[in-house]
Amino acid sequence: MTLKELRENNNKTLKEVALETKLCYSLISKIENGTSSISKKTAQILSDYYGVVIKPQKMIIDTDDTKIKEQQKQYKIQDLIKENKALKKENKKLKQKLNDINRNLIFLVQKTENLNIQEVNDNE
């Protein structure tokens, strides 16, 4: 299995792998295309990321389904945590907007009531 096949089997884009591993996008692309060799450090980072053993000398990828599934769970959990944080932030903004709208509505109701009272007084 090639590194590119491994990435595609995990339904990841180059950009996602680069962001999640903090590796350079172009480096990953070059390694996948065989135009650059892989260092031990990069091999270890990608091994941990994909949950496989990558041996930099021969670019051998040893897949262990159990380890891969566990690693995928960890990354899914991390993705869900990030999404949860983003949703909480958005929720906070929406609550603030709702509070602003409620304050404006109260102001308008009070102003309308004052105008109605003034109109009644003027008619008397």
Question: What does this protein structure show overall?
Answer:
This protein has five helices and two strands. The mean pLDDT is about 85. It has about 120 residues and is mainly alpha-helical. The protein has a two-stranded antiparallel sheet with strand order 1-2. Helices cover about 75% and strands about 5% of the residues. It has two domains: about 60 residues, Orthogonal Bundle (434 Repressor (Amino-terminal Domain)); about 60 residues.
Summed up:
The chain is mainly α and about 120 residues long. It has helices at about 5-10, 15-20, 25-35, 40-50, 65-124, and strands at about 50-55, 60-65. The chain has a two-stranded antiparallel ribbon.
Helix content: over 70%
Strand content: 5-15%
CATH topology of the largest domain: 434 Repressor (Amino-terminal Domain)
Structural class by helix and strand composition: mainly alpha
Keywords for this structure?
single chain, 434 Repressor (Amino-terminal Domain), two-stranded antiparallel ribbon
List the helices and strands and how they pair.
Elements: H1 3-9, H2 14-21, H3 25-33, H4 40-50, E1 52-55, E2 60-63, H5 65-123
Antiparallel strand pairs: 1-2
